Amino acid sequence: MFTEFKASGARAASKIPTPKIIFFDIDDTLSRKGIIAKHNQATLEALAQSDVKLVISTGRSKAILPPDILVLLEANVLDSIICMNGQYSFDNHNRISHYPLSNKQTTKIVELCQASDLIHKFDSATHIAWSGENERLREFNARTPNSIVDPFYHQTSEVYQCSVFFNNQQEKMQEVDFAKYDLKLVHWHNTGADILPIEASKARGILDVCQHYGVDASDCMAFGDGFNDLEMFDLVGFAVAMGDAQPALIARADFVTGTIEERGIQAVLERLDLAS
Question: DSSP E strands: which ranges in the chain?
Fold first, then answer.
């Protein structure tokens, strides 16, 4: 059963045109615990038969994108993927854009993480490299071939973002003035955050992909649920927050729909006669 589609925001009252590109976050938007909901996969497969381009926009590293998402890219259901919060974009054939961190940036990030006594990781196009290991990470690394422990990886490989984890948002690094170093801390979960260049965002990746396809961002729609979707929501013509999205994102959304389980994506797409 579809949930009620609720409109909010200044653009809510206007007629919704069919978007030229729809951007989807992965976790808690298309997928739960790294597995895409079957009804969302069916909707993507149906949409692929239309003229609408389908693009993933995620904070995840390219190295640990869910296998079911990569299968959809290989099958040309998805047109391209923006990953690492806009730092790396690609399609089935080529890299569209990328913004590797500079040596100055990685050096400062390591310094800040060490000062907060945090295990951290750097993400490349092929690996996620941890500065250290604990019991939980040993279990994760044992089942994740692209996850390695190498505190010096960033010195020899192009990396695009750093991630840190703590017990809650208020526990660590709240006193750090990241802007002083042209960096920012972006929470994507209550216990996880990414350290990125201040200009990095999903919005920058979207602009790159839009230019690649010759589409204006105002003609695009985006679905998301987290703090790292804020800039994306501000950029696209129509922004849709999932029902269990962060309150700050809901406040910035043009529309609020249901959760994955409530078939929230389908409730929106039905308005455009695009739902399967």
Answer: 6-7, 21-24, 31-32, 35-36, 53-57, 80-83, 88-91, 95-98, 120-123, 128-130, 147-149, 161-165, 183-189, 192-197, 220-224, 238-241, 255-256
